[in-house]
Amino acid sequence: MAISLTVDHSQRIWKDRSKRVKDARSEAQKDIDDYRKEKEEEFQKFEKEHTSGNKKAEEDADKDAEEQMSSIKGAGDKKGQDVVNDLLRVVTEVKPEVPDRVAGPPKA
């Protein structure tokens, strides 16, 4: 009978120990998940604060580029035809000139 009580008592101690280990493991996992969630929220907040400045700078750069492009297009629309006409005139009009280094026809 004493052996039976000792075995029964050992089994109860073993079950209690196993239960405590499982409870500790689940509690540790819960703490890990809570910590991970907290750090993820901190990272999201940090990322949001620090990337908003880049977004603003990007929008400003796009706006400046668009203004410069419209300015260039306006100048092209205004003076473009004159430039094309000047180029065509220079290419098509022939004005023969003797280079300075050539003195003239060779003398015999």
Descriptive overview:
With 108 residues, this protein is mainly alpha-helical. 84% of the residues lie in helices and 0% in strands. It is rod-shaped and about 140 Å long. The chain starts with a helix and ends in a 16-residue tail after the last helix. The model has no long low-confidence stretch (mean pLDDT 85).
Please tell me the overall pLDDT: 85
**Main sheet record:** none
Helix tally? 1
Distance between the amino and carboxyl termini: 148 Å
- Decide which structural class fits the backbone: mainly alpha
Task: Give the CA-based shape.
Answer: rod-shaped
What's the quick description here?
This protein is an all-alpha fold and 108 residues long. The chain is 84% helix and 0% strand.
